[in-house]
Amino acid sequence: MMHRRAFLQGSAAAVLLTPVVAHAAPEGLSAPIEIVDDVHGVPHIRAASIPDAFYGQGYVVARDRLFQIDLGHRRELGRLAEAFGVDFAKHDAAARLFHYRGDLNAELRRIPADVLACARAYIAGINARIDEVLADPALLPPEYAILGVTPLKWGIEDFVLARGGAIGNADDEIRRAQLAAIGMLELDAIVAPLRPNWTMTVPDGLDAAAVSPADLGVLRQGGLPFGPDTPVRDPAEGPMERANAGSNAWTVAGNRTATGRPILANDPHLGIGGFGPRHVAHLSAPGLDVIGGGAPGLPGIMQGHTDRFAFGRTNFHIDQQDLFVLDLDPADPERYRHNGGWKRFTRVDVAIPVKDGAPYVVTLRYAVQGPVISHDPAKRRATVLGSIAMQPGGGGAFAMIAINLARDWASLRRAFRLHPSPTNFHYADIDGNTGWQVIGFAPVRKRGDGLLPVPGDGRYDWTGMRDFAALPNEYNPKKGWFASANQNNLPADWPRDRIPAFSFRAPYRYERIADVLAGQPRHSVADSVALQFDTLSTPARQLLTLLPPTPSPAGDMLRRWDGRLTADSAPAALFEILWRDLGKRMLAAIVPARARTLVTEIDPSVLLGLLARPDARLPVAARDAMLRDALAAAWTSAQSLLGTDPAGWRWGRLHQVRIAHPLSRIPAIAAAFPAIEGGASGGDSYTVMARWLGDGPGWRVGGGASYLQVIDVGAWDNSVFLNLPGQSNDPRSPQYRDQFAPWIDGRPLPLLFSRTAIDARVARRMTLQGNRR
């Protein structure tokens, strides 16, 4: 097993001291694997077979991120209470509600044999590391001793069983129904304008007045009850994070780059503040050579490149969930109205093991549309969350393996059949080809558009799914580049009856990317890096044109500003304070009192549109007064927050980055895992360098691009990356926070790929040895 001194070697010393460590023979490994960690903590796995390479990936992610993947694994399997006690039992019940109830073996038979072999090997690699740390508890991450638990072993069935129950857009459906009930459905366009344009109607048979947040049932349970104060949630679970989660990606063909080779850039946007959502690894074996960022606990690389092509992804938008409202039989609440009669729920009784207590017994119910999330016999009402994830083939745990095994565009398109989640997939290969394909599964509805809850009586049921073949794509586009930033990128002539969603983001990031790429006929890797850290704010520039000409301290400062939200900018800080205040004032001005609990946010396009084009809701005189008052208030607030001298104001003084262990409310965890902080950040939700604010009244960074890559296709060693805050979650490791400062500074690191480049910057080596049993 790995020697502690080898693990703790600092980067500078490790270049000279590269210990070779031999490990015992683990089950499922056919030949020795060499794992070479470079100075940035990226493990380069050199295996004799493709499954063995995935075994190595499972091993290294468990080595670097064991508690992270273990906690996620327990949560998805509904096995928290057996480790942490009865307070976690209701969360286990909710997780088990979203376990797949079909034939697990049939799901596994859907997976090609080579893909399945790699998944089994990945799991074997995780379990090998677990066996290793259990045999030598000194190797366990510190959380285990503090919490008094041990890691849970993995099985292949777990990948098809746990489908995850997320709130998705169900709360949007509730909000719209509540607005419809008070005759103000049109106000939903203030919160979330429909993109593409669409006219909402209340589904036939829906009693909108009866809809309430209670219909979300178990989805409202909140975070896990760790710590003495408030429940702990994942960084991606809050409403602000869900509203902003997205990504940027662009692909530039060789005829528009400085080298004549394609460039592919990608920076996925996720919550920032807890565990890092990516772990970088390099898997190589005969027939496989792939490097990049993967999701800890899922096999394969999500964003990166093989020896043949580069690939990236951003969120596309497919409405993959519907909220169904069921009428219960007054004589028997275990029956619900469906297709003109009464149908009985499928019931599953489960006994959840509880640490130091009796099992927690609960009944899970399923209707034809999916899991029952709320069951209220007193109101003769139940609600069901219909979800693509719960359908046969709806689990996506094997998709990355299939993508990694592909060799070209044609074989990738076969791999896409295993990928249900909505994604803009970017591609560029060594032959100069570039491609974009939307992938994911879309429900086929009998009726309705998915925007409001629907009756569960059968009229709105799903009749099937469409896959990527029914979604847009481009191959070698004439303009020589394409980009996606979660904007509406459906073709203008896309059929109205096949619009997959209406939740595309405001186009500000995309428009900035497009403007830059269109003006760079000789784009370079450095240009892509600069664009990933670009802080020019289109909303800010638009607002500056609307400021009243009357002299004022705030107006005078902003009119001299270039609209860039850099960390060292005083006007940027003033703008953000002004922007927040204007949003509140606009909501107060245009939203009737009885709708204000429902309309609590304003889309930037709505805010700017009303300021630019006042109407009956906001006459010109009221608009002018609002701007004057907001400017004065923002100046006063800035002085209160940043001091009386504007020369000392900085956006980065407010917009700080802090990364802490998700369980840091437990004092012993907080002491063992020092927070990583002190980073002043620029950007906001609408800059290409997306660094949005977290939930609550503060100004701290809540999310953005924690992983970034720019790939020079074919000249792979020129590629660069960053993975915030580092590769390891263990504070004893030099990779615990070594990428924090480069990320703050915008200095990406080499993504080493060739054996020559890797061997010149080795931090440590280790060998796993053994024969397949």
Description:
There is one protein chain. It contains 25 helices and 31 strands. By secondary structure, it is of the alpha+beta class. It has an eleven-stranded mixed β-sheet with strand order 1-31-2-3-6-7-8-9-17-18-22. Helix 3 (50-77) crosses helix 7 and helix 13 (399-405) runs antiparallel to helix 14 (409-415). The chain starts with a helix and ends in a 5-residue tail after the last strand.
Secondary-structure blueprint of this entry?
Layout: H1 4-8, H2 11-16, E1 20-23, E2 33-38, E3 43-46, H3 50-77, H4 81-84, H5 89-97, H6 104-109, H7 113-135, H8 142-147, H9 158-161, H10 170-181, H11 188-191, H12 239-244, E4 246-252, E5 263-271, E6 279-285, E7 288-294, E8 303-306, E9 309-315, E10 321-329, E11 332-338, E12 341-344, E13 346-354, E14 357-367, E15 370-376, E16 381-387, H13 399-405, H14 409-415, E17 423-429, E18 434-439, E19 442-445, E20 454-455, E21 462-466, E22 473-475, E23 481-484, H15 508-518, H16 525-532, H17 538-544, H18 553-559, H19 570-590, H20 604-612, H21 620-642, H22 651-654, E24 656-659, H23 667-672, E25 676-680, E26 691-693, E27 701-705, E28 707-712, E29 720-723, H24 740-745, E30 749-750, H25 755-759, E31 762-768
Parallel strand pairs: 1-31, 3-6, 10-20
Antiparallel strand pairs: 2-3, 2-31, 4-5, 4-23, 5-27, 5-28, 6-7, 7-8, 8-9, 9-17, 10-11, 10-16, 11-12, 13-14, 14-15, 15-16, 17-18, 18-22, 19-21, 24-25, 26-27, 28-29, 29-30
